[in-house]
Design a protein that fits this description.
single chain, alpha+beta, 51% helix, Arc Repressor Mutant, subunit A, 22 helices
Length: 456
């Protein structure tokens, strides 16, 4: 076997993912919350990076600096005391940051408040507190009475007694062990034995709209059974859901952009909060030029390069988002004018070809991004939907769903439309939708079948 060294020249194509390219892609797919968290971290770590101040703030600072003639006597008299709190107009309410912080008690907080107003012994109160701790966010008791009695080393009778006390608290039906008990507690105020009998034995028949079975077993007319079922359906199956959950994190949507109609044209405004303007700090920029320390210069140069790439990536993100939204407006202009029923089929490929970008870039730019429009706040992915073939061209699935919902809303409740009838009606409008597809769309709209919708 002969071993030797040889030099050869070979040409090949490779995609190399540089750190800068990876950073640009990462910033593009960030949501507004993730982007702000990332920028906050970078602003802390990179001294050369700073956020651009609004023009109004700069003008206010300059006006304060230009004001040389300050009446200090008048300034001091505007204070009540030597503290930093300024005197406010006596005719107006003083606002502080606490005035804008809302607090709503959780279900357990609300139950503990009611428990403190009940006159019971220390032993009974300890049992009641443990019961409340075992109530979930929907208002149901999660543990069995025997388990609680064993844990607290008390009798089941004592636990049952305190459970009955808590079940008398607001909201009505709290601390129930199942749906049947929850509805029975709420029906006490109705004082109707027929309603209690239906709840006790016919919950599944109510769910399946089997009114004939209920009327036969209870000995009432179908119309009366319908009335009783309507009353039962009006009861609250989850009494605790009106309260916030313990430690619940309330998340708000911050639109990445706003679309406004001005003189018949749609104008896009990119939200500065979701993509703030960044600058290079002038002090450190000058320090790079004047510093004679090699290590300092090297450190500052490295941070400068990093800051420049972040600024470039943020601006590229803004431009990409703007182009994508502009393309969506071009394709979906009829939606902004007339509403959901005029939404046309649109794919990522259509937008990608329109603005000369890759589909993956469009996907990243639309994922988790929201836009505020004259018709409400929508996720950008909302405007992308599949189409169904028809005699008048492709029709969006959202438009078909909207038509189906409208047809069901206007139907005769005593003779509800079947899926086949809806399919035939859509076909007469030039939209070819099979019965199975109608059933699928109806389920996605959380609309029950015709047998469940029927009224007597």
């Amino acid at each position: 076997m002969k071993l030797n060294y040889d030099l050869s020249l070979e040409q090949s194509q490779k995609l190399i993912m540089t750190p800068e390219l990876r950073q640009a892609i990462q910033l593009l797919q960030y949501t507004s919350l993730e982007l702000n968290e990332y920028l906050s971290k970078e602003l802390e770590e990179n001294p050369l990076l700073e956020m651009e101040r609004p023009v109004e703030e700069i003008q206010n600072i300059e006006s304060l600096n230009d004001d040389k003639d300050i009446d200090w006597k008048e300034f001091i008299e505007s204070y009540d005391d030597i503290s930093y709190r300024t005197e406010v107009d006596r005719n107006h309410k003083e606002y502080s940051i606490e005035s804008f912080i809302s607090y709503s008690p959780s279900l357990k907080d609300f139950l503990f408040e009611q428990l403190n107003m009940v006159s019971i012994g220390i032993r009974e109160k300890a049992i009641a507190e443990y019961l409340i701790q075992n109530i979930n966010s929907n208002g149901y008791l999660e543990s069995s009475l025997s388990e609680i009695a064993l844990t607290l080393q008390v009798s089941v009778e004592e636990v049952e007694m305190m459970l009955s006390v808590i079940q008398g608290f607001e909201p009505i039906g709290v601390a129930s062990r199942n749906l049947k008990e929850c509805l029975l507690i709420q029906s006490r105020e109705l004082n109707d034995s027929k309603i209690n009998l239906i709840i006790q034995n016919h919950l599944e028949d109510i769910a399946a709209n089997r009114l004939a079975t209920i009327s036969k077993c209870v000995g009432i007319t179908i119309e009366k059974a319908q009335d009783y079922c309507d009353i039962i359906k009006s009861l609250e199956p989850k009494p605790g859901r009106t309260f916030r959950g313990d430690g619940e994190d309330i998340r708000y949507i911050i639109p990445d952009a706003t679309i406004e109609e001005i003189d018949g044209e749609y104008v896009i405004f990119i939200n500065e909060i979701t993509g703030p303007r960044l600058n290079i700090n002038e002090y450190y920029k000058n320090l790079i030029k004047t510093s004679k320390d090699d290590k300092t210069s090297e450190f500052l140069q490295e941070k400068l390069n990093s800051a420049l790439w972040i600024i470039k990536s943020i601006e590229q993100r803004r431009q990409t988002l703007y182009k994508v939204i502009m393309s969506i407006i071009t394709f979906q202009k009829s939606f902004f004018k007339y509403g959901e029923k005029q939404l046309i089929p649109l794919t990522l490929k259509d937008v990608a070809l329109d603005i000369d970008m890759h589909e993956s870039t469009i996907s990243r730019a639309t994922n988790g991004k929201y836009v505020q429009t004259p018709r409400g706040v929508f996720e950008l992915k909302y405007f992308f939907n599949t189409g169904l073939s028809g005699s008048n061209g492709d029709v969006s699935a959202l438009k078909v769903k909207s038509i189906i919902k409208g047809m069901i809303d206007e139907e005769n409740p005593k003779k509800p439309l079947s899926d086949q009838l809806i399919s035939d009606a859509l076909k007469s409008r030039g939209m070819i939708v099979s019965r199975r597809t109608v059933a699928k769309y109806r389920d996605e709209l959380n609309i029950p079948s015709s047998s469940m919708r029927r009224r007597y």
